[in-house]
Amino acid sequence: MSDLRERFQELADAGARHGRTPGPQAALRRARHRRLRLGLVGVTAAILVVAVVAVAVGTDRRARLVPLAPSGTTTASTVPPDVSILPDPGEVLRPAGSPPGQVGEQMVRDVATEVAGCLNGRLEEQTVLVAWGTAHRRTWLIAANPRPPGNGRLCWADGLFEASGAGGFSNNGALPLGSLRASGSSEIRDGDQYWGFVNGSVTKSATRVRVLFDLGIPPLDIEPIQSGDQFPVNFYAGWYRMPTRDKRPATWQVVRVVAYDAAGRQVAECRVGGPAGNC
Amino acid sequence: MARSESFEEFYTGTVGRLLGQLFVVTGDLHEAEEIVQEAFTRAAARWARLRDYDVPEAWVRRVAMNLAADRVRSLRRHTRAMRRLGPAGELPPVSVEALALAGALGTLPVRQRQVLVLHYLVDLPVGEVARTLDMPDGTVKSLLSRGRQALAARLGEAEEVLDPS
Lengths: 279, 165
Hints:
The structure holds two protein chains of two kinds.
Chain A: H1 4-18, H2 24-58, H3 101-118, E1 128-135, E2 138-144, E3 156-162, E4 167-171, E5 183-190, E6 193-203, E7 208-213, E8 220-222, E9 233-241, E10 254-260, E11 266-271
Antiparallel strand pairs in A: 1-2, 2-3, 3-4, 5-6, 6-9, 7-8, 7-10, 10-11
Chain B: H1 7-26, H2 29-45, H3 47-50, H4 56-76, H5 79-83, H6 96-105, H7 110-121, H8 126-133, H9 137-162
Helix pairs in contact in B: 1-2, 1-4, 1-7, 2-4, 6-9, 7-8, 7-9, 8-9
């Protein structure tokens, strides 16, 4: 073990020596391509947003533009998701009030690019920013393609970004849609407190998603985000407070997710990790 | 330092280093190539802002580490995706000792691998590793300790196999 650094360096040198990347021009072209294609989408979106808002003013639909209320069973030690969406996000490409500024634009592009990746890079396909929110100095987004590729699959992606625009995002479209899916992040620092984030897709029959954790973290109840008729599922997102530092392992704390319908009946369930893991 | 650099200069000066680091984290050269190129593509889109950072390479490394963790996480959670993994990742020719290290690293959780790489290879202090991975110092220390123990145990086994005497 005394030569650990040397062995690491040898491995890295081998990777650097034998690895092949397309070069800086390819990265610049790809970045420019994304900007241009998604810029066109953005212009179309802006026109649609203006049209939708104009209609909404006339019909008092703006009254419905309220954040989702926290579920009645959300425990005191967790925080409900900071969700703000249009009443019918399927009508617009991007909801009014998308993440602000150039960094926000870039976040939308990053997630939309992930959706396009599921569509074999077809950026001309419509991508809908289904929902986004901010909490704990992070911005999360969920975007999807309203035209399901079929075979029980839907092209959708989620992202979680810092204020600088750095972050992680993933394309979920390569996986079977299922009635309940969950993914997320942990170890998200905000001051002295650490948070975990969970999001996913859920069958439309569900009116409540309950996330169960290990380490004694209280369950978190989340109201699904209504995605509209053009999507076969709804989505959900929520934050949970992580245990104190010395009790916190470096693993995801979500162990099980359960969906309930309006009558309180369980309509879907998935487990995280282990041989039975199917989230 | 980076203020007068063009993106091309920045890319050329850092891509090999980042590729090596991500290769050690992922254990797969092709995956490391894809992750690093994607991280640079995102950097290219933000270069007007990133070029004024003191160390833009740290931003790219951070994005690449996030991408690596995301890939592992999404693969781990879906058995179907696991089946798509296919054969073990591509390894360039290295010494027996480095090969043993690559094998041992492959058995560790991705966060442990990342912490070990950032500390031992990139030579970042614990606090900087914590900032890069957005986790507390204590967690980094714990992951380093557990990672070292796990590597010692696995490399010990590997050495017995490689050298029965």
